[in-house]
Amino acid sequence: MSSYKFECLNVSISPEGVARVEISRPEALNAFNTQTWTEIGQCFTRFKSDGDVRSVVLSASGRMFTAGLDLKEAMTGPLSKPRDPDADVARKGYYHRLFILGFQEAISAVELCDKPVVVVVQGGCLGIGVDLISACDVRIATEDAYFMVKEVDIGMAADIGTLQRLPKIVGNDSWVREVCYTARKVPAKEARFVGLVSSVHATTADAMRAAVDIAGTIAAKSPVAIVSTKHLLNYSRDHSVREGLEYTALWNTLAHNSHDMATAIVSSLRKQPAHFPKL
Ligand SMILES: CC/C=C\C=C\CC(=O)SCCNC(=O)CCNC(=O)[C@H](O)C(C)(C)COP(=O)(O)OP(=O)(O)OC[C@H]1O[C@@H](n2cnc3c(N)ncnc32)[C@H](O)[C@@H]1OP(=O)(O)O
User: Fold this and answer.
1) Which keywords annotate this record (predicted)?
2) Radius of gyration, alpha carbons of the chain
3) Which residue out of 32, 33, 71 has the highest number of ligand 1 atoms within 8 Å of its CB and is therefore the one to mutate?
4) Which of 6, 20, 139, 245 is the most exposed place for a label (fewest CB within 10 A)?
5) From ligand 1's centre to the CA of 70, what distance in Å?
6) Residues of the chain with pLDDT under 50
7) What ranges make up the beta strands (E) of 117-172?
8) What is the pLDDT of residue 79?
9) Is any atom of ligand 1 closer than 6 Å to the C-beta of 239?
10) Phi-psi region of 212 (alpha: psi -120 to 50; beta: other; left: phi over 0)
11) What is the reported pTM?
12) For residue 30, how far is its CA from the centre of ligand 1 (angstroms)?
């Protein structure tokens, strides 16, 4: 079984293939410093090619999912310090853009890892937190959870995925624009109503149990079927229906030839559970 060691993340993988990733900077309310988002990118990039991982539960420690970007680091770290303070605006801007792209890539690794990610949100989920959960597959919240697209309150437009992914998740343009322009607090009940989260639970322990249950169900299925489904859902979201269908036909020309289909069909006819080898 693979082992993952990080500074800001606790990672474990069950024998069934459910990886658990806990963001762990509770003293700073899990604010995202460079180390945290870099490790998220590294971890989920590794999951993509780790056959031991079939599904993922992402959570965060303490009373809040995340207070957003680490504002203390933002005032003193790479965001505030150009590598050459005397360089002109184009030269400074070039490297600033690369920084933002690197940050985007790290969060997009969650979407691109092919294994479904179930995220549990308790307490606040601010700024980069909304970017992150928008890149996940299934969102579960506690009753005390709330969401804020907080970027306008720190003088910027959200730039790590919220403005691209949230409208496609929620499908209510007026609501999305309202919460992105006002940075208002969206309580869990409202998040459930608009479809940002799929269920709301009384406590973090209840939400974690529900998430592990969903991830366990996914992990027991054919990994070929599961990675194909995630990959094709994401592709189809970003393309026309015709393009999605064409690509799906091509993809499944390979995937239909796994042993998993025969195993699944025979097990289903015999009313017996099936076991599928790892990818
Ligand atoms: C290239 C750019 C990429 C990404 C950009 C993302 C943008 C964003 O994420 S925008 C959102 C930024 N975050 C915020 O504006 C939230 C700031 N924090 C707060 O408003 C409050 O802390 C709170 C979240 C409402 C919680 O309040 P409270 O319950 O009263 O706790 P505190 O005592 O304030 O905080 C406890 C402890 O955590 C530290 N902390 C809180 N937030 C951050 C943060 N964002 N960055 C760094 N540290 C944070 C706070 O300083 C306290 O630590 P002490 O050591 O006790 O001071």
Assistant:
1) Acetylation, Fatty acid metabolism, Isomerase, Lipid metabolism, Peroxisome
2) 20
3) 71
4) 245
5) 7
6) none
7) 117-121, 124-126, 138-142, 146-148
8) 76
9) no
10) alpha
11) 0.97
12) 9
The tokens describing 87, both together, are 């360089």
Residue where the block lists tokens 């770290």: 77
| Contact present, 135 and 161 (Cβ < 8 Å) | yes
Q: What is the pLDDT of residue 85?
A: 87
pLDDT at site 1: 74
- Torsion from C-alpha of 94, 99, 105, 108, nearest 10 degrees: -120
Pairing of strands 124-126, 55-60: unpaired
Helix (H) or strand (E) run with residue 13 in it: strand 9-13
- The type of residue at 167 is P
Amino acid 125: pLDDT: 99
Do residues 57 and 18 make contact, with C-beta atoms less than 8 angstroms apart?
yes
Question: Three-state DSSP class for 28?
Answer: helix
* Residue entry with tokens 């590294």: 42
With left for phi above 0 and alpha for psi between -120 and 50, is residue 125 left, alpha or beta?
Answer: beta
Place of tokens 């990733």: 21
Show Cβ contacts of residue 100 under 8 Å, excluding neighbours closer than 6 positions.
159, 160
Instruction: Give pLDDT tens digits for 224-257.
Output: 999 999 999 999 999 999 999 999 999 999 989 9
